[in-house]
Fold this sequence. Notes:
397 residues; mainly alpha; 2 domains; 16 helices; 4 strands
Amino acid sequence: MRASVETKRQVWAILAVALVVLGVSLGMQSAYYQLVLTQVLLWAVLSLAWNILSGYSGYFSFGHAVFWGLGAYTVALGVIYLDLPPWLGIPLGGVIGGIAGAVIGYPTFRLRGHYFALAMLAYPLATLYVFQWLGYQEISLPMKRQAPVLYMQFADPRAYVVLALGLLVIALAISLRVENSRFGMALLAIKQNEPAAEAAGIDTWRWKMRAIMLSGALAGMAGGLYAVVLLVVTPESVFGMLVSAQPLILALFGGVGSLWGPVIGAAVLVPLAEGLNGELGDVLPGIQGVVYGVAIIAIILCAPEGVYWRLRDRFTKPRPAGIASAEPAPSMPLSATAPAARLEESGELLVLRDIRISFGGLRALDGIDLIVREGSLHQRRRQDNLVQCRQWLPHPR
């Protein structure tokens, strides 16, 4: 019941954010600010895609640019060579991203930890050189004046904001579904202790493959829409190091493993980086990388867990997640709450009735009764343990 209520709150929050973004877009008159807002939404989608794999499973990826770039080139090459409308090219980019996730995940999930992260870094760099070798250094999408709506070439930039917002809502809905399903619980179990998850019967390889395929599909769709918005695709702009690092940085800043962390990171860092690049880009080339570097240093020093988790812990006091029911049942109150005189007469130091403690899906205690009497075996064992512990402690010099 509590999970259902929380899910409904998150759904309403998603709808509220969508309405706020639409209102902000309608109030903007500058095409440049509309473009920045569109980029914020698309980078948020890419960061959410990264979060599905790396945030929930703990397998940090430095190579999500490969999915983003494949989606962008799918749309661009589809328009040029097949006259394929982006309405079909973007979903096709998602399919190719999912297939690429399966192809990449099959050999790479044999590695763990930093070995996995370094291996993932190699894929976008290798793909960059492949596309350069094929002669696709710079591809411009042709203008289709006869059917602008069919090829997503709108005169009003607000249309791109609406498309990017729709993709963001889809990504948030998928992430929320993953987070509140067996899928998400399996990924969290893998993140906490993969050998223990396997011992508990979880098919870790299957869940990881599903995560990377879903993550690649979302990233591919976002990259396809990115190509439509900018109308120019180059290997460096879609497979570069900054593209691979950006979703990771946004998620780390906002809060890894949370629904809203990637969105917070994109909403704060992308406008800041784009604004500084527009103002100081000619004087300080690469100012975007400096912004992201400073942001990471600041978040490590001030809020290592991310902005979202820090704000949630500050303004809410959630009940500990590990304890499902530590309170006594109404029909069987704890005898420990009885008057002290009654306890002294019976000689009972502690009386517990019907104790239940669970950690997630594991119920450690269920219906446990415990009575500790003065001078009983419980107390003597405790004293014996203390004596044994003292024997092992070093004597003060």
